[in-house]
Design goal:
By secondary structure, this protein is α/β, with parallel strands linked by helices. It has helices at residues 3-16, 213-243, 245-257, 259-282, 287-317, 328-343, 348-377, and strands spanning 26-33, 38-39, 43-52, 55-56, 60-69, 72-73, 77-86, 89-90, 94-103, 106-107, 111-120, 125-126, 130-139, 142-143, 147-156, 159-160, 164-173, 178-179, 183-187, 192-193, 198-199, 203-207. It is built from seven helices and 22 strands. Strands 1, 3, 5, 7, 9, 11, 13, 15, 17, 19, 20 and 22 form a twelve-stranded parallel sheet that branches. The longest helix is centred in the middle third of the chain and has 31 residues, at 213-243.
Length: 381
């Protein structure tokens, strides 16, 4: 399966889980698959603390505050969470995203990791290629093919049979490091290669160009814009809930009851509206309508982000509170914060933004459609 699709599953599997019990085999505040337990199928599990100690003869799709796999998995692992630890045996590949990621066991296939901190421990092994993108990447274990990394800090003290390709601000090769292929890296300064480190192939350094005043100014503007956008979404979202809790509840129910329909509407909206705007601009006479269309398009994306944050937050809280009503304010605030953290993760952030736009626009359009249908049924319009 294409790696981008697999990464999409990490996030969208959480979003698309409806009320159907068939999609979630295990869920709760604390979920444990016992050491003697055997699951002869794919496992979909969610919770505050997820621990898999037994055997899974299929794929694992997991998300939660902490996900730990100590058992045997005869398939892939696709997981997202605050902390993910893989200490058992995985007979296929691993695709994980989260705050702290640790691989201390053996992964026979490829490993794709997105996180704040990523570590391949001394006892950790990746049978094929390893891709690691995040804030800090530490490699002390074994990679049987090539290693690709993009991060702020990169520390390597393990072994690779193939090449190492890195883009990092700071790169260190520890005395235990052994690279049997080439080392190709891009950094503002040369790597610190400590005594004892071995590189059997060629070493190529591409110096990263220093940021110009224009780039620094643009980066400052981007940071300011992100902060301003976050607080504007926060304030507008709180006001929207205060004005009409009924409409806010409709937004949450739309994602729960029609996740695929929301995604479909979002895709159509994001694709068809720009095409229509371009056609109107070409026709000259339609320029005023096109300008209005652009404004409406951006407005829908903005309110879509609010709608998605609200629905996503409640979806997350339902992992811990199965019954009873959940505060709309709490759902919205938590959803907005979680999404803010996810979009800040290098590389993963782009995919999260795309999913927010797709689902958000779809939820916004679909919920407005339902409001209009309800108003017509009551004879209001």
């Amino acid at each position: 399966m294409n790696r981008l699709i697999l990464l999409s599953i990490v996030i969208s599997s959480f979003i698309l889980t409806s009320k159907s019990p068939a999609l979630v085999i295990k869920s709760g505040k604390e979920v444990v698959i016992g050491k003697e337990e055997i699951i002869d199928d794919d496992l979909i599990v969610s919770g505050g603390n997820v621990s898999v100690k037994g055997t899974v003869n299929g794929d694992i799709f997991a998300w939660g505050g902490q996900v730990t796999v100590d058992g045997v998995v005869n398939g892939d692992i696709v997981a997202a969470g605050g902390q993910i630890r893989i200490r058992g045996l995985v007979n296929d590949g691993v695709r994980i995203a989260g705050g702290n990621l640790e691989i201390e066991g053996k992964v026979k296939g490829n490993a794709l990791c997105f996180g704040g901190s990523i570590q391949l421990g001394k006892d950790g092994e990746v049978g094929r290629d390893l891709w690691a993108f995040g804030g800090r990447v530490t490699i002390d274990g074994k990679v049987n093919r090539s290693l690709h990394a993009g991060c702020g800090e990169f520390a390597f003290g393990g072994t690779t049979q193939g090449n190492v390709e890195v883009k990092a601000n700071q790169l260190t090769l520890l005395p235990e490091a052994e690279i049997k292929g080439n080392l190709n890296y891009q950094s503002a300064q040369q790597a610190e290669i400590q005594a004892g480190a071995k590189i059997l192939g060629e070493t190529k350094w591409q110096k990263a160009e220093p940021k110009t005043k224009v780039k620094r100014a643009l980066n400052r503007f981007k940071r300011f814009f992100r902060v301003a956008l976050f607080f504007s979404l926060f304030l507008v979202g709180i006001i929207m809930i205060a004005i009409s809790k009924k409409h806010a509840r409709l937004v949450v129910d739309t994602l729960s009851s029609s996740p695929w329909k929301s995604l479909g509407f979002g895709i159509l909206f994001l694709l068809l509206v720009p095409i229509a705007v371009v056609i109107l601009l070409i026709s000259i006479i339609g320029i005023p309508i096109a300008i209005f269309g652009i404004f409406a398009y951006l407005l829908a994306l903005y309110f879509g982000a609010i709608c998605f944050s609200l629905a996503f937050g409640e979806k997350f809280l339902r992992l811990f509170k199965k019954e009873g009503e959940i505060s709309l304010y709490l759902s919205f605030i938590l959803g907005l914060i979680l999404l803010g953290i996810l979009v800040s993760i290098p590389y993963l952030g782009f995919l999260v933004k795309l999913l927010v736009m797709l689902f958000g626009a779809g939820i916004f359009v679909l919920s407005r459609q339902r409001l209009l249908a309800e108003a017509k049924a009551k004879g209001i319009i």
